[in-house]
Amino acid sequence: MLIDLSTLNELKEMMQDDFDQLISIFISDGQTQIENLRLAVDASDIKNTQRIAHALKGSSANLGIHVLSESCRALEYEAAENSFQEAKELLEQIINYFEAVKKTLEENY
Amino acid sequence: MKILIVDDAVTNRLVLSAYLKKDGYTVVVAENGLEAIDVFQAEDPDLILMDIMMPVMDGYEATKKIKSMTLDKFTPIIFLTAMTDEKSLSQCVEVGGDDFLTKPYNRTILKAKIDALERVSQLYNTVYQQKRELIAHREQEAKEHEVARKVFDSILNPGCLSADNIQLHLSPMSLFNGDVVLAAVKPTGGLHILFGDFTGHGLAASLGALPVSDVFYSMTAKGYSISDVVREINRKLKRQLPTGMFLAACLVEIDTNNMILKYWNGAIPGAFLHKMHSVIELKSKNLPLGILADSSFSDKVDITEIHDKDKIVLTTDGILEAENSSGKMFGLDRFKKCLTEEGGFDLFQHILDTLDAYTQEQKQTDDVTLGVINCDINYINQIASQKGAYKKFVPSHWKFDLHFFYDSIKSLDPVPLINQIMGEIQGHQIQQDKLSIVLTELFCNSLDHGLLGLDSNIKSTPEGFMQFYTERESRLNELESGSICISVSNVPNETGGELTIVFEDSGKGFDVNKILQSDNLSIAEDGAIKFSGRGLSLIKNYCHSVTYNDSGNRVECVYSWSNIDT
What is the rounded CA–CA span in Å between residue B219 and residue B229? Predict the structure, then answer.
């Protein structure tokens, strides 16, 4: 399962009006982060790759989007190892996941 | 409870805020470490949730800064981290973090950690609060001590402690270790010094110094001897101090007129007269002041000769009990030895130096009260004449008459009044005990037999004695006329003077020859004062001459006195 809907539903219940804001910020921030992540990976920039992957890992985990979070964790690790071949593959995976998540979120909330 | 969330990711802040608000907390937020410091100062939160990786200033740096700003308040900081490596986590603790929470957040764990830290911070803050109160109390106490010290200083020090011939080492807190040092110039020249040590410590021990200084200064100023002063201090302390509190004291008088030292020592171990080539111990022969009742108290002073530049050394047991590094006391023997050492040094400084060398620690001298008084005769005479408040009393010519009419006699005893007047004129150089007996007898005779017309023969039996006084009281109440005139005059001579005391009453008098004869006879026969009603034999014992006029209502006595200071 791509998204743990129970976490999101709990948040929606607690946050009510703020929830919509949370979702839209997550999507727009996520898009920016992914664009920046692509630039960093293309440039084999270890530090920035790590930093952005780390941030996206944390924020997606908080929303219960564990698959995306897990891929970010792997990317953070590969960047640290300077394995940018693997990093590029992971990035493609992350982009695909994010698009799917975005679609799911927009459909559901 | 107010919680500060520090995280650069909006979504993280939103999620956390939602959790915390749901649990009833107030939430404030900051986007990076630097902003966190500002918000912390402005909002004073009770707990901080701190992300690590942030732009501008990271969580480690912000935590160090905030912890250094909160020395007297505990504000727990929980690190929020997506990191799981040991190094990062241990760094959280090193910079002052109190706990950490890994992402994704679990509401239950978050709540549990906040609750636990809230209890810890309550405990800390209670301790901090008590510490602040303790500090405030200490400051208050120090302030009160300072005020008390100033008040005491002004009360205890109107004398001449600062005179150049007195070297004093007083602990700045001497007031609160119960030591008292007083010095005053006598109106007739010479110096009175009191060196005392109250039992106990603290403000309570020092309170006794107030009555002591009161008696010491006022009686010295009036010309009383140290015997009188020490008796009065004992009487007052006995009455005023609680049981178990008393004053070890040594009083000394430097009599510059006769070059003698008079001293009374009650339990001061370190009192010495330091002469050119010898040291005399001014031994304690008495109990401390405030223990004995007046009737068992001895005010007997010891007398020793002094020479110019002899030194009186006085110390309380602070010096004797000063310990060296192995806990051994300085003791009396070392102190005495130190006094006998010769070498042209200043004695006062030598004692302190010897003590310092012994204890090897400067602070030991904080408990030490030491006084060295130089018997510099010229200097003492000089300061005596400088003290404007003091009069030099010399025996002189004077006379005063007092008239008491029947109504004033009912309520007034003229004897203390007469003593007081003579004291004002002659500065208490006239010893009052014998004179008071004479005056009292004369007054009683004039009143009882002259004005009230009582027969003293009634008193010869025990029943008569009672009858006499009952009769006396009722006649005194009914008295509606009459008077007694008292006249006292002085003619000075080399050692003091000759007082002529005249009592004249308005009564009808008595057969002078008969009474005088029988009075004399009774003494000649068995020594008992059979005709004690007139007390004439007593008066005759103390007076040069006693003369009655023919009608027996006027008596004239001549009483010789010598200056008690000479």
Answer: 6
Range B2-128 has CATH code 3.40.50.300:
no
The type of residue at B432 is Q
Give the torsion sign (CA, B83, B88, B93, B95): negative
The residues near A10 (Cβ < 8 Å, ≥ 6 apart) are none
Question: How close does chain A come to B56, measured CA to CA in Å?
Answer: 14
Neighboring chain B residues of A25 at a CB cutoff of 8 Å: 10-11, 14
Distances (CA, A) of B118 to B47, B139, B317: 8, 31, 54
The edge-to-edge listing of strands for the beta sheet with B179-185 is: B179-185, B191-198, B247-255, B260-266, B302-305
Chain A residues whose CB is inside 8 A of the B82 CB are: 54, 57-58, 61
Q: Which of B229, B235, B233 is nearest to B190 (CA)?
A: B229
Whole-number Å distance between alpha carbons of B269 and B304: 18
Tell which A residues from 30 to 69 touch B, by Cβ distance under 8 Å.
51, 54-55, 57-59, 61-64, 69
Assign a CATH topology to domain B398-562. Heat Shock Protein 90 (3.30.565)
Cβ pairs A/B, distance under 8 A = 52
pLDDT of residue B263: 95
Both tokens of A88, joined, read 């590029």
Q: What residues pair up with A84 in beta bridges, in sequence order?
A: none
Q: Which of B482, B488, B505 is nearest to B410 (CA)?
A: B482
A19-108 placed in CATH 3.40.50.1100: no
Search chain A and give the residue with CA nearest B82.
A58
Could you say which architecture CATH assigns to the domain B157-386? Answer: 4-Layer Sandwich (3.60)
Tokens for B381?
Answer: 């005479």
Domain ranges of chain A: 19-108
For residue A30, the chain B residue with the least C-alpha distance is B11
Q: Which of A29, A52, A59, A63 is the best mutation test for B, with the most CBs of B within 10 A?
A: A59
Take residue B427 and report the two structure tokens written for it: 């500065």
Half-sphere exposure of residue B69: CA atoms within 13 angstroms, side-chain side: 15
b/e B297-321 (16+ beta carbons within 10 angstroms → b): bebebeeeebeeebbbbbbbbbbbe
Segment holding B520, helix H or strand E? helix B512-526
Is the reported ipTM for this assembly greater than 0.90?
no
Q: B-contacting residues of A 70-109, CB under 8 Å? A: none
Task: With beta carbons under 8 A apart, name residues in chain A contacting B85.
Answer: none
Please spell the DSSP secondary structure of B278-335, one letter per residue.
-EEE----SPPBTSS-GGG---PPEEEE--TT-EEEEE-HHHHT-B-TTS-B-HHHHH
Q: Smallest Cβ distance to A11: which of B8, B15, B21?
A: B15
The 10s digit of each residue's pLDDT in B25-77 is: 999 999 999 999 999 999 999 999 999 888 889 889 999 999 898 877 889 99
Question: Which pLDDT band, with edges at 50, 70 and 90, does B362 fall under?
Answer: low
Instruction: List residues in chain B touching A: CB distance below 8 A.
Output: 8-12, 14-15, 18-19, 21-22, 53, 82-83, 103-105
- A61, B82: Cβ pair inside 8 Å? yes
Q: How far is A88 from chain B (nearest CA, A)?
A: 22
**Chain A residues closer than 8 Å to B9 by CB:** 29, 55, 58-59
Domain ranges of chain B: 2-128, 157-386, 398-562
C-alpha dihedral (B58, B62, B63, B67), degrees to nearest 10: 170
pLDDT tens across B447-465, in order?
988 899 887 777 777 777 7
